[in-house]
UniProtKB/TrEMBL annotation:
InterPro entries: Glyco_hydro_43, Glyco_hydro_beta-prop_sf. Belongs to the glycosyl hydrolase 43 family. Transmembrane segments: none annotated. It comes from Bifidobacterium adolescentis. The keyword Ribonucleoprotein does not apply. PANTHER family: GLYCOSYL HYDROLASE (PTHR43817), HYDROLASE, FAMILY 43, PUTATIVE (AFU_ORTHOLOGUE AFUA_3G01660)-RELATED (PTHR43817:SF1). Keywords: Glycosidase, Hydrolase, Signal. This is Family 43 glycosylhydrolase.
Amino acid sequence: MSANYSLLCYTREATGREEANNEDIAYSMHLALRSGDDAEWQPLNENYGIFFAAGVPIAAATAESRRACTAAARFAADPFDAPRPATDAVAHGVVMPGMDITLKSLKNPFLFRLADGRFAIAATRTARGGEPDGSERSAFLLAISDDLTAFDQRGLVLLRTTGGVNRPSVSFDAADACYVVSWTGDDGKARTARTADIVAAAGSGRPLDVVESASSQPLRQTGDCGIPNAVVGNSIAISEPEAERLIERFGRIRNTGTSVPAQRIDAGLHGEDARNAVLALAATRAELAYSDGSQATRAVDWNMAQLEAISQEASEGTLKAGQTRTVEGVIRQSVYPVPFAVERADPSVFAWKFNGKPMFMFIATDDTDGNCVDPNDGRTHMPLRIADSIEALSDAAGGRAKEIDLLACGDLNSEDRPMTGCFWAPELHVIGGKLSVLFMPCFDGPRVNPDGTPNDRAGKPDMWTGSCHIMQLKQHSDGTDFDPREPENWTVPEPILDPDGETLNPIQRISLDMTVLCDSGRWYYAWQQVGSIWIASFDPARPARLTSKPKQIVVPEFAWDNMIAEGPNAIVHDGTIFLIYSGSLVGIDYTTGLVTAPAGQGADLTDASVWTKLDYPLQKSGMYNGRWQLGTGHGMWSHDEDGNLIYVFHNAEYEHGRYGGRDAQVRRVHWSKEGMPILDMQTAEELDPDYAGVTMEVGFFDAD
């Protein structure tokens, strides 16, 4: 392959939500790559956006309230954002998504190099959905990036004009050591501005002087790039390492080979010792290699007849040092049913040992016909499945017929309040040595809302009355566990309260989607309220009471995660906490985002600045094994029978324009060479069928 690469930036014409290309996605910067030997542009990231304009906190948002607006951290007051009053959230030191933040989109992206070689992006900022927001009259958006996998949004570069800044472009004039900004005014005339430091100009509030230009803008690309619905920006040359970095992050990763390390047995062993040493080789795992240089291991179903024959020879002492034997096997790859569980949303699969006996549990929100508040004509319940394997939990294996109702409509919480609806997002965790369920029940609504207006859910389950609760499995006096399949063996659900015994959410009441993470000996809850992710510490010996005040740490700032960030769940991998969350409201536009933080370093995870946000979704709607999966999200990390990391999530049930709820899915996770979780690796990408068959060489040696 040629070492000469070109990179194209573009937006798309919106084609529809069913193709993961609504206006929120289309009006973002996409990237495509080609080499000198290939005339066709190859879209990266499945032709999905990579750089999205960050939302703008309103002027009334205080510095304290916008601490979790990390993508817009550098933004100054926006002269083009219409003034409006802040919500009550700002008075509590936080922002309300979609109200205290104005979401944005972009058009006309332009890629260029800074003088130091880094990438930069100039674009026309728009209102969410692509309509003008006023900034196009006299400004453009600027962002910089080391490698185009993460972005530093600097804000608007102001120009001393009100006559329109159409299709802005930027180049560096080495002779004059300055950046030249070029664009066309609404009158069709070309104009330019110059600055020694384009990065400092962004967000400075000082407009650049403008002059008319005799030339047009040669830096812009024109014509058809061959990508359907693409609206071309421009292309630049990039190096082979830069191209490889983009392919690693935004390309497809596939299995390229498998191998099994040679095994050695002491020829001096005899009898049962020799037999057991050989049979122990059944646990030998295969090593899988991938196109990005990453690796993984998988269990193998070895030919036990061959292993038995070798173990017999070894036990009889007929195998001598220097002799070898070969065992055949097939790499184990469970392909879980799709869907795994129909109309079961916010799913959680949990591997647990019941007094030493391994078992798998599945728990979820009942989302029959998309009604998750009071489904089944008000027969709301919390469905639990328990089996000896993950596959046995699935609908296809009869898991639905074996569901246990841990809770049902009308059960009382610890305050003697009847829980009449929701039972949302139950998650299983071990807290303080006890199997626990975190979830959100709701209650019948009061006659009027807190603001005095009539409540249309009065006397009926009202989601806005819901709050995070915990229930725990009881234990015998000797510390062994009661049977989790019996509802009476669980404690009465308790609401989780702040350190002062007050509700978690003083702004809207509702709190939900609670999960657990532990780092450097400190335990935390993370959950959703005020449309964003919050966190606080707690003592696992007293799990119904926080030990720190709740803090907002993740705010939906982009069009792709608009209005809400919910469903957090965390795992630690190679010294990093990976906290996934979901956004863009429930439905076919649902996406999965990611924030990361250092693990094991004693970082204060309640500080929003500790977390680094991915600028684009980690998981999104797309093709999986030849079929569309729309509205993927609200996932949970777990492990399968062989210890492999799996991802359990839901997608939208959507056919012929009808939304019918959410279905649970299960798939394995792959870690790329750079250490990113891959949530959409397809079956043949995970394991090429041509490499599924493996052999293991068993050699005998003289230990003396």
